[in-house]
Amino acid sequence: MLMRVLNKLVEGGGSVLLIEHNLDVIRASDYVIDMGPEAGKNGGQIVAEGTPLEIMNNKNSLTGKYLKEYLGIGSTSSPALKTKKSTDTTMSK
Hints:
Blueprint: H1 2-11, E1 16-17, H2 23-28, E2 31-36, E3 45-50, H3 52-57, H4 62-71, E4 90-92
Parallel strand pairs: 1-4, 2-4
Antiparallel strand pairs: 2-3
């Protein structure tokens, strides 16, 4: 239900900014800013940014690593992922 509401906001011309760890939300995002490299005082840096596909291809991104595992793919060519940046973006993490 949440994803339907977020998609309607974007389809209506809005932008959505989320701080989120849910991999389904990250997978459906247009653009991700991955912060890290760890939590707390060991974090706060941009580790990776881009589409979920670009995040998965970034060797510095733990989010990309976990997203690949979650999706069960070794290759990052899944059609279930957004591959192009859009002007209306949902950002995660």
